[in-house]
Amino acid sequence: MTQSNDKNPTVTSLLLVEMREAIMDGRYAPGTLLRQETVAEEFGVSRVPVRQVLLALSSEGLVNLQPRRGAVVAGFSEAEIADLFDLRALLETKLLAASLPNLGPDDFAELQDINTAYGNAIAGAEKQRFGELNAKFHLTLYRGTDRPKSIQIVSGLLQSSNHYTRVELIRHDDMMRAHAEHEAVLDHCRSGDIDGAVAALRSHICDVQKGANRYGVSAATQKDD
Q1: Which of 18, 65, 106, 138 has the fewest CB atoms below 10 angstroms from its CB?
Q2: Backbone phi, then psi, for 65, in 5-degree steps?
Q3: pTM for the model
Q4: What is the pLDDT of residues 13-42, one digit of tens each?
Q5: Phi, psi angle pair for 216, to nearest 5°
């Protein structure tokens, strides 16, 4: 990016993408103060697009605009993380139990393709695809239900947890664990083992929650730059 073009809407759009990725990847940890002049210098633009991008990130819930302090990268407290993942475990296990009897070989093949793509994204360090493929895998598991409101709620919860999921999965061991846990859920689904599939899914969500809590505790110790 160059300052000569920083009034171009394209520059603002590109800056939005880059800053969103920096937050989602954990380069800007929760609690980080984003000073306009510092961000402008880092990306080689003026403050004009930076202000616009911070407003956009605020509307997405990724940044909090605080009076007399400025923009701060948003985060969840441990209680908020627990609330988010408890809701996921409650709703997603019920959806899976209701959905599995209505899933067939074509659905399982699609789920395998999604998880294979997830594994390929891990191998290629395509962090921007983790949340997309994770949500796609989970929501495909529940397509056998006729509960659109629950699906809508779960979709929103998956989006909300995407930030922590991606940051927690930056470590290769954690990424491989999540991939293996998806495989375990799918194996139980293929065999028609509803109880086993539900237990594996609950364990998977719990493991991701533990990682999110580790990240949240670490982020709480961050100091402003």
Answers
A1: 106
A2: -95, 110
A3: 0.73
A4: 999 989 988 887 778 888 899 999 999 999
A5: -65, -40
